[in-house]
Amino acid sequence: MNSLFVEFADELRAAGVPVSMVETIDAVRAVGATDLADRSALRSSLLATMVKDVKYVSAFDTVFDVFFSSPHGLPEPDDGGEGDRRFGGEDGVPDDDLDDLLRESLLEALERLDLEELRKQISQAVDRYAGIEPGRPVGGSFYLYRTLRQLSPETMAEALREALGPGEDEESDHLDQRLLDDEIDGRLEMLREEMEADIRRRLVADRGREAMARTLRQTPVEDLDLMRASRQELDDLEHAITPLARKLATRLTRRRHHLRQGRLDFRRTVRASLGTGGVPVEPRFKRRRPHRPEVFLACDVSGSMATFARFTLLLTYSLSTQFSRLRSFAFVDTMDEITRFFGAGTDAATAIGRIATEARVVAADGHSDYGSAFESWNSLVHGEITSRSTLIIAGDARNNYRPAREDTLATLAAEARSVLWLNPEPKSYWDSGDSLMSRYGQHCDKTYEVRTLSQLENFVEELVLP
What we know:
The protein has 466 residues and is α/β, with parallel strands linked by helices. The protein has 4 domains: 2-68; 82-204, no CATH class; 237-259 and 291-464, von Willebrand factor, type A domain (Rossmann fold, 3-Layer(aba) Sandwich), CATH 3.40.50.410; 263-290, no CATH class. The two termini are 47 Å apart. It is built from 19 helices and 8 strands.
C-alpha cells in the first residue's frame, strides 16, 4: 500500500505539483486514519496533506482519478441483466430506436439529479458509442467526443429546458432565463465529467496507471511555452498573471525588509547595552538601503514577438512599485515610448491593446530592425540614462539580415548601470539564421532564455533583488 502512495507522489511531481518527502509521509499517516472505502474522504485527506496551493488542485484531481478510481474495464454482457436487454439491440428494442431510448434515460436521470442512475446510463452510452478497443493507443478525449456526438448535447439541452423551464401559463423574466441556462449548463457539464471519468477508468484498467497518467499529464500554466501556447492556454496564462504578480510582490517586499538589516553596529549595540547592565540583549545593526532599479524596458512587438511582449509588460507593470522608476518602449523597426499608455489607474491589459493602434513602432516595412530601433531609442533617451538605470530588452534579436548597428547598443550600455536581454527562443536557436544574439549579447551584462512565466518570474525577482 505504501508503494502506491509513493508512486502517486512521484506522478504528482511529474505533473508539476511540488510534493516533499515530509508531505508524502503525512499523507500516508492521514490515510491510516481514513476509511479507504470512502473515496471522497480519501481525496480530501491526500489533498490536504500534499497540495499547498489551489493552482495545483486540477492536476491533483487528474492524477487522483487515475490512481484511485475503481477500474472495472470493459463490462461483459450480463444475460440476466435488465439493462443489457434494454439496450442490447437484439432483444425487444430495434437499433433505430436505441439512441432515443438511451437519451431519454439520461435525461430522466439528469432531471432527477439521480447520480447513481446517471452513471449506469453513461456506462451504457460508452459501451454503445465510444468504441473503446483494448490496447489501442487512443486518448480518452477521442472516445468522449464520439460518445457525446451521438448523444447530441444540444438536443438534450433543449429537452432539459422544456422539462425544467416554466410552463406555458407561467411568466419568466430575463433573470429566470439566465438562471435556467446556468442550471442546464451545470447538469450537462456534470454529464460530461461523469462520462469522462467512466472512460478514464476503462483506459486505466486497459493500459495501467502509469501509462494513463503520462497520457493525461498537463504542463503547469507557469511552465507553458509562451511562444507555442494555444488560445486557451494564453487565456489561462493571462488569468495567472495577476495572482502571480501579487504573490511575487509580497515575497519581494518581505525579502527587501530582511535585507535592510545590515552589519552589526558595534557602537550602538554597546550604547544600548548600558541599560541592561552591559549585556547586549538587543544587538543594533547598520541600516542598509536596498537598491530599487530604474528600469528602461524595450519590447519587440512585431508579429512573432507580440505574445511575449504582452506578458513581459503585464508582469513588469504589475510589479511597478518595486522599481524607483519604470519607462517602457515598443518597437518593430523604430522605437516609441509607451509609458503614457500606463497612467495611474489604467488597466495594463487595456493599455497594451492601445499599443497596436496608437504607438508609432513602424517607420518602414513593418519587419523587425533592431539596429534602426536602437538608434531611435538612443535619440529618445539621450542624456536621461544614468548609472542607476537598468536597460531591459525583450526580443529574439532576429534582424531580418539588416545592419546590426551594435555600436549604438554599446553607447547605451556605457551610460547605464546594466543591460539585460530577455530572449524567448531556446538557446540552441540563438545565432541561427538572421539571429544576432551573440553580437548584441556582448554588450549586455546578462542574457536570459525566458520562455515561460516561471522563468519571467525568476528574472524579475533577480532584477529587484540582485
